[in-house]
Amino acid sequence: MRLFAKARALLMLLLSFVWDLFASTGTVARIVLSPRIGVRPAILVMPTKLQKPWAVAMLAYFTSLTPGSTCLHVSEDRQTLHLHILDLHDADATIAKFRRLYERRIAELEA
C-alpha cells in the first residue's frame, strides 16, 4: 500500500508540474508579447518543511523549471529557498501555490 501511495504522489507531482508548466508559459508569453511591460519582479523567501536533501533539491528544481520563477539560493540548513519571481502580485499566494503544487507531493514522497 505504501508503494501505491508513493506512486500516486509521484504521478500527481508530475501532473501538477505539467499543468503549471503550460499555465506559466502562457503567462510569461503574455508578458513578453505585451506592448507595455508592467511586471513586478521580486525575490521571495520561501520556508520549507522538507527535511531530506533530495526533497529540497526537487522543490528547488521544480520551481526553477517553471517559467517565470527560479530558485536563486537554498539556505545552508535547507529550510529556506530564495526564489526570483518574474511578476509577483501576492507573495503569500505564490508560496501557497508552490506548496500546493510541489512541496506537498514531495513531502508525500519523502515520508
From TrEMBL:
One CC-aspect GO term: plasma membrane
Superkingdom, taxonomy of origin: Bacteria
GO function terms (MF aspect): monoatomic cation transmembrane transporter activity
Key words of the record: Cell membrane, Membrane, Transmembrane, Transmembrane helix
Compartment(s): Cell membrane
Predominant place of localization: membrane
Entry annotated with the keyword Transmembrane: yes
InterPro entries noted in UniProt: Cation_antiport_E
Signal peptide, first to last residue: none
Membrane topology qualifier: Multi-pass membrane protein
Protein family per UniProt: Belongs to the CPA3 antiporters (TC 2.A.63) subunit E family.
Protein's recorded name: Multicomponent Na+:H+ antiporter subunit E
Lineage, opening ranks: Bacteria, Pseudomonadati, Pseudomonadota, Alphaproteobacteria, Sphingomonadales
